Amino acid sequence: MRELSVYYCSKCGYYGYYQLQRNAVCPKCKVEMNALSISYQDFMDLSCEARDEMLSLHIIESSSPYVQRLLAPHKVNNNREIIARMGDRITELEIENEKLNQTIEWMHQTIWELVRKNKGMVPDDKTNSDKGIDP
Ligand SMILES: [Zn+2]
After folding, report:
1. How far is CA 54 from the centre of its chain?
2. Do 103 and 52 lie in a common domain?
3. 8 CA → ligand 1 middle, Å
4. What is the distance in A from the centroid of ligand 1 to the CA of 76?
5. Among the three residues 37, 62, 87, which one is the final residue of a domain in this structure?
6. Which residues surround the ion ligand 1 when the cut-off is CB under 5 Å?
7. 94 is in which domain, residue-wise?
8. How many other β-carbons are positioned within 10 Å of the β-carbon of residue 58?
9. Number of structural domains found in the chain
10. Tens of pLDDT along 13-72?
11. Please, what sign has the CA dihedral across residues 29, 30, 32, 36?
């Protein structure tokens, strides 16, 4: 029987044990997982924290240059700070997202106004005819 190897997903951090590389596909992301160079037994002997840390480092190494730069200053032994930085970045993205949503809302509004104009559906006229009042 072949030995199990440790594989991890660099997208979501999921990890698992497989005998064959082709079976190492992340169940969440449906992407091929990467093999860890550590043996299955050595990995099992690590504490949860040590596993987390090892995987965090691997994930950072395999991430985009942008993320690497973002996380570079404290790559080693500081998950707390990494999490804080990520939290910061998420807040930034949330703010950006809100702005985008506002823009989309504004665009919707504008598009609706155009559609109404094109159809000759001016809101005031519509209300009057609804009430049965001749304009
Ligand atoms: Zn995944």
Report:
1. 21
2. no
3. 8
4. 23
5. 62
6. 9, 11-12, 14, 26, 28-29
7. 65-122
8. 17
9. 2
10. 889 999 999 999 999 999 999 999 899 999 999 998 899 888 888 887 777 777 777 766
11. positive
